[in-house]
Amino acid sequence: MIHAAAGRPLLAGTRDVVVIGAGHAGLAMSRCLSRRSIDHVVLERGQVGNSWRHGRWDSLRLLTPNWQTRLPGHRYAGSDPDGYMTMPQVVEFIEEYASLVGAPVRTATTVTSVSAEGDGYRVETDHGRWHCRAVVVASGACQIPVVPSVAAALPGSVQTLTAQDYRNPGQLDDSGVLIVGASATGLQLAEEIQRSGRRVTLAVGEHIRMPRMYRRLDIQWWLDATGILDERYDEVDDIVRARRVPSPQLIGSPQRSLDLNTLVERGVDIVGRFVGLSDGKAQFSGSLRNHCAMADLKLERLLQRIDTWAELNSKRAQFGSPERFAATCVADAPRLSLHLQRERIGTVIWATGFKPDYGWLRVPAFDRKGDLRHDGGIVPVPGLYVLGLNFMRRRKSSSIDGAADDVRDLGAHLAAYLHKSATRSAMRATG
Fold it and tell me: In the chain, what are the domain boundaries?
C-alpha cells in the first residue's frame, strides 16, 4: 500500500488521522490505528525508513542487540540475536514491517504545514491537502544537527562537518581532526578516524559511561530486565533534565566496550568541553576531570543497582560475578586550548546532538525555547500527538523497542479522543 506521489498537487483527501513519518514509530502507530479500524494515511517525505537511509555514517550499527529489534507484531528472526544491525539491515527490517502491517504510506510527500481547521487539522503537502481530525507527528528527533553559533567563526581553511554529514575517513584530508562531543557518536567517530591514521582530539563534556557487556550479558539485557528502560516520564524527579541526558557511550560491536580510556590508549587526545574560539584557538573548559568523575560515579550507581537486582532475582552463578571498571584516566593538566592552524587541524566534526524539525507545525504548542510541549506525547492542542522523542513516555521511547508501549498508550488516548469528538459533532448536528 505504499504509493509514491507524482504529478501536480491535488486535493489529497480526508482521513480520521494523518501520521507524519514512515519510520519505525509512524509505522507502529499505523498498525495500531488499523487494528482499531481508524481510517488514516502515513505521509513520508522520502522513502520508508528515510532517516535510517540518510544522515548516518557508513560503519554505524544499532546500539541495541538484534533480539531487542522488535515492533508490534514483528521482531528480528535471524541467526545472530546478539549481533547489531547495520543501517541497510535496519532499513530492510522497517520495509518488511511496512509491508507486513499494510501501512497506507504516501512516499515522496513532504508536509509543508499543519494548522488547526475547525474541529481538526489541515495538512498541506507538496502533493496536495489533507483534512483530518487528528495528527500524529512521528518525524523523528534527529533531523537538525545542533551546532553552536561559534562554529561560524572557524577559519575558512578548516572543514566543518556534522555527524549527519560524516560518512567515512575518506572525506577528510590527512591533517588533524577535532571532534566536539563525547557521547556514542563522538566516541565512535574518534575511534574510526584515529584508526585511519589521523590525529584526533576529542572535546568531552557531560557524558554517560556504559560498558557493552556486564557479568557476561549485554548491558541492554540488564537495563531491560531491571526495568530501567521501562521507567516512566511521570516517575522521575526532573523529566526536563532526564530528556536532555546524553546518549550512553556504546558501540554496536559484541563483547567490546568503548570509553575514554580506550581512546586514550590508542592515542586520542582528550580535552574538556568546547567553550569557544579566540585568535584562531579552540578553547576548552577546565571541567574535564569533574565530568569524568561524575560519569564514573553514575556508572558505579548503575552497576550497584544491577548487582542488587541480580542478587534478589537469581543465583549469582547464573550471571557471573560483579565487575568494576577502572576510573577514567585524565591527564594532570589537560590542555585548555588548541591552535587550529599551528597544530594542523583540518576538520572539526560537531557530534553535539540533534533536534526535531517542527518548522511546518503551526500550532500554539511551543515553549519559550521553541521546544514542542507535550505530556508523554500528548500535545496540549486537542488531537495532536508526537512519537519517538527521547524519554517521551519511557526511557526507551526513542529506540525501536520503545515504540510498542508508547503506541499502545497514545493509540488508546487517540481513539478515545476521536470517539468523544464524533459524539460532540453528532450532538451539534442534532441539536
Answer: 3-143+356-430, 148-350
Q: pLDDT tens-digit profile of 154-178?
A: 998 999 999 999 999 999 999 999 9
What are the distances in angstroms from CA 291 to CA 89, 110, 204, 379, 411? 35, 41, 8, 34, 40
How far apart are the C-alpha atoms of 122 and 69, rounded to whole Å? 34
Distances (CA, A) of 60 to 206, 315, 361, 397, 412: 22, 36, 31, 20, 35
Question: 366 by DSSP, 3-state: which?
Answer: strand
Tell me what pLDDT residue 74 has.
97
CATH class name, domain 3-143+356-430: alpha beta
Q: Which CATH class is domain 148-350?
A: alpha beta
Which tens digits make up the pLDDT trace of 321-339? 999 999 999 998 899 999 9
- Locate the DSSP E strands across 144-199: 144-145, 159-162, 176-180
Q: What is the pLDDT of residue 6?
A: 46
Cell of residue 25, nine digits: 514509530
| Cβ-based neighbours of 66, under 8 Å, separated by 6 or more | 76, 78, 80, 81, 82, 83, 84, 85
Higher pLDDT, 22 or 51: 22
User: Considering Cα of 130, then 135, then 139, then 143, what sign does the dihedral take?
Assistant: positive
Question: Is-contact 43 125, C-beta < 8 A?
Answer: yes
DSSP β-ladder status, 281-284 and 337-339: antiparallel
Pairing mode, if any, of strands 345-350 and 159-162? parallel
Query: How many angstroms from the chain centroid is the CA of residue 219?
Result: 18
pTM: 0.93
Determine how many CB atoms are found less than 10 A away from the CB of residue 12.
20
* Residue length of the chain: 431
The residue type found at 83 is: G
- Taking the CA of residue 240 as centre, how many other CA atoms within 13 Å lie in the half-sphere pointing to its CB? 5
